[in-house]
Amino acid sequence: MGGAVGFLSGLFGIGGGFLLTPLLIFSGIPPAVSVATVTTQVVASSASAVVTYWRRKAIDLKLASVLLAGGIFGSLIGVILFDILQAIGQLDVVISLSYVTFLGTIGGLMLVESVRAMRRRRSGEPPRARKPGQHNWVHGLPLKVRFRRSKLYVSVIPVIGLGAVIGFLGTVLGIGGGFMMVPALIYLLRVPTSIVIGTSLFQILFTMAAATIFHAMGTKTVDIVLAMTLMVGGVIGAQFGARMGQNLRGDQLRLLLALLVLGVGLRFAVDLLLFPEDLYSIAIEKGAGL
Q1: Residue 38: CA atoms inside 13 Å, Cβ hemisphere, count?
Q2: In 10 A of CB 158, how many CB atoms?
Q3: pLDDT tens across 165-191, in order?
Q4: For 92-114, what is each residue's pLDDT tens digit?
Q5: Residue 13 confidence (pLDDT) above 70
Q6: Sequence-separated (6 or more) residues with CB below 8 Å from residue 104
Q7: Of the N and C termini of the chain, which has fewer Cβ atoms inside 10 Å?
Q8: Count of C-beta atoms within a 10 Å radius of residue 236
């Protein structure tokens, strides 16, 4: 399981948590433990893939650093909310509903865009001429900074905000956030596709490292044995994924990622609608020794 998710991490530039967390939950591991433990696996698989992209000089360190600043702040807020939801017994429901909402919305948007791009390419229609530095409403915001590697001159406000959202969701839902980070960098900030994956992985690496520390010290729901087992496969799989990702076109990568996101979201929706086999769940209380 760790190897398969690590492969997808290197292939799409995602942390892989959005897939691994549901798989662990579907396997019977409590959601609280699944979320907290997956952050450690995301760190391992992302680190492995980042090495590959670093050697290719496909990372914008300045952009990734600004995203990281927002990500660490978002992670801290996420741990606080995670602790509150766990204390009142609503964590499981919130995780499931959040996965259905976010994965369904983002997966649907990515699917529509990627299909349109593939149709335009097959019909011979030239792609829309939009340069990396061109923006819509983002371009009018203050506090602009130049990111030379990505050929951007944009406000740091949306960049920090994006990092904070990814860090918050990563901590609460156990996701690296790459399935949102990658399309946001491409469509919102107009970062070149060749730079997006490496930059996304770099930000995910350090944001999830912070989330792991926060969970270990705050919620105490990290299963280190499970994490180490997942890491072994994740690190190896990420290397193969990073190599194969260079052989696929951008529209193909986006289409495959959209289908994956929708598939996981659909599974959560089905589980919410079906009558549960067990009417009661086993909750892990803070401080309880199991």
Answers
A1: 32
A2: 17
A3: 888 877 777 666 666 777 777 777 777
A4: 778 778 777 877 887 787 778 77
A5: no
A6: 262, 265, 266, 269
A7: C
A8: 16
Query: What is the pTM (predicted TM-score) of this model?
Result: 0.66
Annotate 99-164 with DSSP letters as a single string.
HHHHHHHHHHHHHHHHHHHHHHHHHTPPPP---TT--SGGGG-SSEEEETTTTEEEEHHHHHHHHH
Q: Which two tokens stand for residue 195?
A: 């730079």
Residue whose tokens read 């914008």: 60
- Between helix 31-55 and helix 91-123 the angle, nearest 10°, is 40
Q: What is the pLDDT of residue 129?
A: 47
pLDDT tier, 289 (very low <50, low <70, confident <90, very high otherwise): very low
Task: Report how far apart, in Å, the C-alpha atoms of 80 and of each of 102, 206, 269, 284 are.
Answer: 21, 19, 26, 17
What size, in residues, is the chain?
290
Between residues 91 and 177, which one has the greater pLDDT?
91
The two structure tokens encoding residue 70? 């927002």
d(CA 176, CA 46): 9
HSE (CB half, 13 Å, CA atoms) of 112? 5
